[in-house]
């Protein structure tokens, strides 16, 4: 017997409109270092059959060196569509070719584009969230703590995220790809997002596993505690077992329940059906 989540996921996959991809910067990306596909950030647009009115910009992970566009992009968009949420999967520029602030600028631009075209996409301008996995989680946390009035997400979803760039819990590969070989200490501090949380940081949902061997669970824990100190609404789910990079974890009998918790959190806050 299909669970409610599985039923709606299958419905979304079979009935959702075909995706459409658009460049974030139709006239050329600022600071582009070439004309290849990797120099042209874009969003893949997934609109639900029965829209609820909210949207999520999805940031796949990949250590700021590649992008897991399937299990942390397309599959996530289809899951969101199944809950009535529009999804915009972000293809952002990557290291070591590009360094900060290029990645942050791309994610902020994606939020601005979605918000400026809210009516066209059938969404509400103040119900636009950001969701990130691993290094994409760091990017989502970065735009949640570094923003202007047009680029602030209204909520954030962070799955096994990189949060800190400081030892001992930093993911070294992500830091190196984002900041280069010898980054300035002030920049490391500024992009260790657990140090940047304020009362204006959006409500956040976190998921991670305690035995994650790639990105220590302390990344999620430190961010959650920072949210608590700033009295930002937050919910965190930690699972004892589970490898890094699970995505929706549908093949894992235990961890596959995390999207169900997320669905409840979205409904409670009025961001999903």
Question: Could you please describe the fold and organization of this structure?
Answer:
An eight-stranded mixed sheet has the order 1-2-4-3-5-6-7-8, sandwiched between helices. It has helices at residues 4-15, 70-82, 102-116, 118-121, 135-145, 172-179, 185-190, 218-229, 258-269; strands at 20-23, 42-46, 55-59, 86-91, 128-133, 155-159, 204-209, 234-239. The protein is 34% helix and 16% strand. It is built from nine helices and eight strands. It has 273 residues and is of the alpha/beta class. Helix 1 crosses helix 2 (70-82) and helix 3 (102-116) crosses helix 5 (135-145).
Task: Compose a concise summary of this entry.
This protein has 273 residues and is α/β, with parallel strands linked by helices.
Give the SSE layout.
Blueprint: H1 4-15, E1 20-23, E2 42-46, E3 55-59, H2 70-82, E4 86-91, H3 102-116, H4 118-121, E5 128-133, H5 135-145, E6 155-159, H6 172-179, H7 185-190, E7 204-209, H8 218-229, E8 234-239, H9 258-269
Parallel strand pairs: 3-4, 3-5, 5-6, 6-7, 7-8
Antiparallel strand pairs: 1-2, 2-4
Helix pairs in contact: 1-2, 3-5
For the largest sheet, list the strands in their spatial order.
1-2-4-3-5-6-7-8
How many E strands? 8
* Stretches with pLDDT under 50, minimum 5 residues: 1-15
Mean pLDDT score, rounded?
A: 93
Judged by helices, strands and strand pairing, the structural class is alpha/beta
Strand content: 15-25%
End-to-end separation: 22 Å
| Sequence of secondary-structure elements | HEEEHEHHEHEHHEHEH
> What's the Cα radius of gyration?
17 Å
Largest sheet: 8 strands, mixed
What's the number of helices?
Answer: 9
Summarize the amount of helix as a percent range.
Answer: 25-40%
Instruction: Tell me, briefly, the overall form.
Output: globular
